[in-house]
């Protein structure tokens, strides 16, 4: 049996595998990539895929073991997590009705409240005991190879590689009948792309994100994402812009896969809150197509019924993405949007699910975003523009950091040399220019931001609060609004 001490030791070992920052100097390119007109010739560092096949073998898993997980592989820029969760929800609804699949694994990242959220079976994170048991099985198997670990020739996995290996190991040991894997970043060189024979692969909406690793153009990004296509496996994507669509078609042809672009499904419920924004209707439609493809291949042509779809949408949930928490007279709208493609959708969702302007109901925005990769000022401009276009001008705006509570050390003291309080001041100044009527506060922690919003709400008949800009912010807010029980954390 593994107790709290073992779980604590596991955490220390796992955290030690994190690298301090993404590499910026060492370039890597395969000959094929170097001659591709849309290749990323400045791919940095050792690709995450390197070592994965060998590490799986060291922990005792063959290619056939991975194939037998019956994997659906999903990538994209926006909506990967939601699409994974919708796909699982539809397969679970079908499994409850027919008996197959009855055990579904899900691997996603990042987590909001606790690490085990990343590895789930049938909508629940695996238990602390199982997580610890399987972690040490993986860790001990890898440690026994006794080879020296270097940056150029890695012998031990980094943090995300280790978690992906743990997910594969867990799903094999637990004998899942279907597994849904979300990529970390990109596709071609992603650690999860060790999957050689997925049942189906899906790509959500593409946009300009992680351009340092995948860019500099959307064609580069499309090339990387389409790297998850495999010979003989079904491939699907939501509709994309013409140029990346052509890149994806060419990649599918190179890899021996037929690509189908999936439009919005006309049979989706009209008034369901889970589908109140266009991007979620698109994600849901892709998930339906992926679930149908899975059943076609693995369930002797069984169909996803209309009731399966209705129940799948009804039971869908995805923490931190289009999530609503009701707390007394306050409604908290949480979405971890952190790029311009997603934050506009968060604004639309908030506008469609809140009351019209009302003197008795306060509308509040809580925002933070700090990244060396993205322009937080541009992100805030996009959020303001989308809110204003949809008739929402928050009465009060609160800017904060990524620190959850007062007693924490600052998680990211500086971004590109700029202290976080300076970022908050810059965000505040920008918002004042965009909407001079707004009241603005700067709070040093997420906890203080939540308390400030509650104090403002007490002065009215209630409040509707949008919390967005970062998964760090949303994760901290969820922790404060819905604290973990001891068995969860």
From TrEMBL:
GO terms (BP aspect): one-carbon metabolic process
Domain of life: Eukaryota
Membrane spanning stretches: none
UniProt key word tRNA processing: no
Cofactor binding note of this UniProt entry: A monovalent cation.
GO cellular component: cytosol; mitochondrial inner membrane; mitochondrial matrix
Catalytic activity: (6S)-5,6,7,8-tetrahydrofolyl-(gamma-L-Glu)(n) + L-glutamate + ATP = (6S)-5,6,7,8-tetrahydrofolyl-(gamma-L-Glu)(n+1) + ADP + phosphate + H(+)
Region of interest (Disordered), ranges: 1-39
Root EC class: ligase
Basic and acidic residues biased stretches: 1-15
GO function term, MF aspect, one: ATP binding
Enzyme Commission number(s) of this protein: 6.3.2.17
Keyword ATP-binding: yes
NCBIfam families: folC
Function, as annotated: Catalyzes conversion of folates to polyglutamate derivatives allowing concentration of folate compounds in the cell and the intracellular retention of these cofactors, which are important substrates for most of the folate-dependent enzymes that are involved in one-carbon transfer reactions involved in purine, pyrimidine and amino acid synthesis.
Protein known as: Folylpolyglutamate synthase
Record lineage: Eukaryota, Fungi, Dikarya, Ascomycota, Pezizomycotina
């Amino acid at each position: 049996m593994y107790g709290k001490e073992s779980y604590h030791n596991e955490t220390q070992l796992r955290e030690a595998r994190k690298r301090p920052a993404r590499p910026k100097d060492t370039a890597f390119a395969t000959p094929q990539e170097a001659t591709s007109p849309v290749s990323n010739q400045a791919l940095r560092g050792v690709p995450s895929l390197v070592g994965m096949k060998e590490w799986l073998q060291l922990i005792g898993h063959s290619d056939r073991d991975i194939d037998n997980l019956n994997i659906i592989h999903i990538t994209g820029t926006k909506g990967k997590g939601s699409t994974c969760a919708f796909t699982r929800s539809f397969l679970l609804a079908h499994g409850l009705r027919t008996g197959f699949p009855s055990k579904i694994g899900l691997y996603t990242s990042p987590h909001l409240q606790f690490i085990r959220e990343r590895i789930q079976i049938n909508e629940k994170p695996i238990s602390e005991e199982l997580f610890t048991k399987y972690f040490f099985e993986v860790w001990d198997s890898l440690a026994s190879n006794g080879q020296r670990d270097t940056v150029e020739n890695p012998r031990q996995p980094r943090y995300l590689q280790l978690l992906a290996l743990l997910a594969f190991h867990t799903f094999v040991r637990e004998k899942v009948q279907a597994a849904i894997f979300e990529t970390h970043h990109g596709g071609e060189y992603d650690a999860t792309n060790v999957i050689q024979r997925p049942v189906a692969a899906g790509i959500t909406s593409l946009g300009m994100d992680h351009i340092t690793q995948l860019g500099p153009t959307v064609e580069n990004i499309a090339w990387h994402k389409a790297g998850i296509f495999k010979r003989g496996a079904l491939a699907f994507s939501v509709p994309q812009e013409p140029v990346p669509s052509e890149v994806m078609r060419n990649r599918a042809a190179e890899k021996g896969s037929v690509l189908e672009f999936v439009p919005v499904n006309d049979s989706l419920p009209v008034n369901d809150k889970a589908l109140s924004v266009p991007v979620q209707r698109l994600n849901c439609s892709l998930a339906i197509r992926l679930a149908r493809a899975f059943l076609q291949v693995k369930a002797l042509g069984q169909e996803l019924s209309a009731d399966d779809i209705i129940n799948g949408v009804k039971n869908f949930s995805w923490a931190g993405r289009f999530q609503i928490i009701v707390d007394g007279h306050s409604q908290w709208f949480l979405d971890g949007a952190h790029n311009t493609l997603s934050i506009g959708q968060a604004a639309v969702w908030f506008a469609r699910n809140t009351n019209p302007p009302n003197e008795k109901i306060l509308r509040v925005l809580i925002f933070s975003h700090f990244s060396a990769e993205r322009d937080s000022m541009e992100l805030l401009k996009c959020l303001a523009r989308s809110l204003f276009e949809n008739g929402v001008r928050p009465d009060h705006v609160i800017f904060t950091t990524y620190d959850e509570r007062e007693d924490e050390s600052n998680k990211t003291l500086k971004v590109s040399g700029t202290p976080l309080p300076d970022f908050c001041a810059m965000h505040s100044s920008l918002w004042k220019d965009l909407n001079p009527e707004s009241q603005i506060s700067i709070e040093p922690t997420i906890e203080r931001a939540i308390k400030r919003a509650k104090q403002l709400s007490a002065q009215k008949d209630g409040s509707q609060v949008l919390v967005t800009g970062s998964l760090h912010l949303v994760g901290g807010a969820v922790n404060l609004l819905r604290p973990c029980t001891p068995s969860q954390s």
